[in-house]
Amino acid sequence: MEQTPKANRVHIGFFGRCNAGKSTLINMLTDQPVSLVSEVAGTTTDPVSKSMEILPLGPVVITDTAGIDDTTELGTLRMEKTEEVVKKINLAVYVLRTDEEPTADDMHWLGLLKQNNVPIALFINEINAENKEVNQEENKEDASAYVESHKGLSELATVIGSADFTSKTKRLELLDLLGGLTPLDVEGDQTLLQGLVEEGDAIILVCPIDSAAPKGRLILPQVQTIREILDYKGLALVCQTEELPAMINSLKNPPKMVICDSQAFDRVDELTPNTIPLTSFSILMARFKGKLQDLVAGVEAIKNLKPGSRVLISEGCTHRRQCDDIGTVKIPNLLKKQGHTDLQLEFTSGGAFPKDVSQYDLIIHCGACMLTRREVLRRIECAVVQGTPIVNYGVLIAALHGILERAISPFVDELKG
């Protein structure tokens, strides 16, 4: 579980009103004091996350959110944070209490989850259950009766469970409920190298070591690619840019493919014979996480950039900017070198991404190795719906160097489909 990147885990959000019992349920589920529990309403202020493993879902990230009826001075900001969680999760647990009627706020947030196609496990917290004998079947019947007695709840919930928080048996019930749901927009059995590598294939990975590369480590896409090659029983051959010719010449047979860092695209293209397929880690990520077709289609907008055009450059992670940072330095310099001067450049990083992107003439996004597939698809859809072209780093750099056709050639049949 610890070896699975956070972006590749199933994300589960817990929602409900203040003091509904979300935090208690999470602590029971994880068997750890992840969330602060108190009778004071509004104890949970910002989303709190915890990684664990739930079979058969596998590695997951559980997120506790602020009460949806938070009326404190910062309540509006907290609801904005909660709304961001809705857009990123793959499953939802919504908690209601048996001693309270569902409110308009409850129906609004349940409807928002449904609108975003998030599967919902509706849990009914049996507040007075401490005086009852623990009877799983009776509690289930009580939960079903509660839902049926309130119009609209049954249509919103994917599964229904009772949440007697005084009983540890409820942990198993919730685990069973979650395990039976199909998460929204997860990678599933799809892989970075789906259909590209077979047993015995030699793949050369060109991994330049620059100031942005963590000392003693490779960046995540490179590590994931190496692991997948090993999973396919292929041969992962790693070198830096100038060692590429010697690596190719040392092989008895040509490699199946060369995969490089997008920043080295132009030089690697020169050093790799045209008979050997070439692509980049960023383009592999675009295919794995989102819709490569939409990102390739966005290339046309590059030709239409003119002085004053607004361009958003968005990073999915947050890191200390280096003097040769790809997003804030290298890509702007490359655009200038290609004649695109006096652009209005704006930058976002981490979870930040504007709701309104119609104001931009182009969005340039990173490879998104730190974002979930659901979040990447949401950002691409946001751009497409608002009519704003979007590309990612690898697609943009290949296009500016005039080698996009070669860089996407391994996926040409998929792009036609």
From TrEMBL:
The keyword Metal-binding does not apply. One of its GO terms (molecular function) is GTP binding. GO terms for biological process: tRNA methylation; tRNA wobble uridine modification. Coiled coil: none annotated. Residues 12-125 form the G domain. It comes from Veillonella dispar ATCC 17748. Pfam families: HydF_dimer, HydF_tetramer, MMR_HSR1. InterPro entries: FeFe-hyd_GTPase_HydF (IPR023873), GTP-bd (IPR006073), HydF_dimer (IPR041606), HydF_tetramer (IPR040644), P-loop_NTPase (IPR027417), Small_GTP-bd (IPR005225). GO terms for cellular component: cytoplasm. This is Hydrogenase maturation GTPase HydF. Residues 192-290 form the Hydrogen maturase F dimerization domain. The lineage of its organism: Bacteria, Bacillati, Bacillota, Negativicutes, Veillonellales.
